[in-house]
């Protein structure tokens, strides 16, 4: 219990949270009602019971299904403000949040509504709740390269509202180099670059290698399989590459059918690891405090390690050094 209080009180930063993955079932119902849509579930409990998945593709199906209720600027505002309010209540002082514009553009939502609503929520949350935040546009790697480029081009007029670009969705058959041109263009526009390397994916070490060596990613999201390559671990450590681990989803690497505690091994190897909630609305509504409490038990994290993790997190922030030092 005292460990729980310690974790709750720890000043925190979050770097791997998909805004659409914070869309709680009750908000989904409220937005559906507001937008005149009907949902195929009797109530919140029935909807939550449908959140059953066993791998990345089966998770993604539920996740993309869920976000279809997001249509207006106000919807995106409510989504982002809801997350920021929850995060602030858990003593998150700073967050960098992912969003998936392609899935919204697909159903005719304007990029202005998406970025506009989220940006307005960020401003209000900073003023009213004291939580600072920034936004990372993710390319959906399982859609075409052309679709991702359209989203980037649509968003670039709003690049001052973005801090970086990322890469998410189904990794199988979609290596990071599929988006080399996109990352280069985003960089040229002054944006930072991060990429998901989900755990236990086909060619996962190759994807980590390409992301680090060819695409010069500044961070890796998940990335737990790196513990299987001493060479890549040494490279990531020497470059100080941050890893945004989400224990709920990527804490366990499977090797020869046996689970490896990737978070523990990454910490022990001196990698710059932070702990994050990923898609809390679909992961038992466990936000960063609950995720850290569980990780503490599963990986027997000491108080010093918990402080180390949050220091790593704040050091990961894409903000001016002076602002970053203010948190440390
Ligand atoms: N990995 C890949 N795609 C995703 C994730 C993730 O953790 N969350 C939402 N989309
Ligand atoms: Zn993710």
Helix content: 40-55%
- The topology string of helices and strands comes to HEHHHHEHHEHEHEHEHEHEEHEHHH
- What is the mean pLDDT? 97
Catalogue the unreliable spans.
Answer: none
Structural class computed from helices and strand pairing: alpha/beta
State the separation between the terminal residues, measured CA to CA. Answer: 26 Å
Describe the strand arrangement of the main beta sheet, using strand numbers.
1-2-3-4-5-6-7-10
Number of helices: 16
Cofactors, ions, other ligands: hypoxanthine, zinc ion
Number of domains: 1
Q: Could you name the CATH homologous superfamily?
A: Metal-dependent hydrolases
Can you tell me the CATH architecture?
Alpha-Beta Barrel
Residues in β-strands, percent: 15-25%
Largest sheet: 8 strands, parallel
Secondary structure layout plus pairing:
Blueprint: H1 2-9, E1 12-18, H2 25-34, H3 44-49, H4 56-66, H5 73-89, E2 92-99, H6 101-106, H7 111-129, E3 132-140, H8 145-155, E4 164-168, H9 180-188, E5 192-197, H10 204-214, E6 219-222, H11 230-239, E7 242-245, H12 247-250, E8 252-255, E9 258-261, H13 262-268, E10 272-275, H14 288-298, H15 303-316, H16 321-327
Structure description:
With 328 residues, this protein is an alpha/beta fold. It is 49% helix and 17% strand. The strands form 2 sheets. Strands 1-2-3-4-5-6-7-10 form an 8-stranded parallel beta sheet. A two-stranded antiparallel ribbon has the order 8-9. Helix 5 (73-89) packs parallel to helix 7. The model has no long low-confidence stretch (mean pLDDT 97).
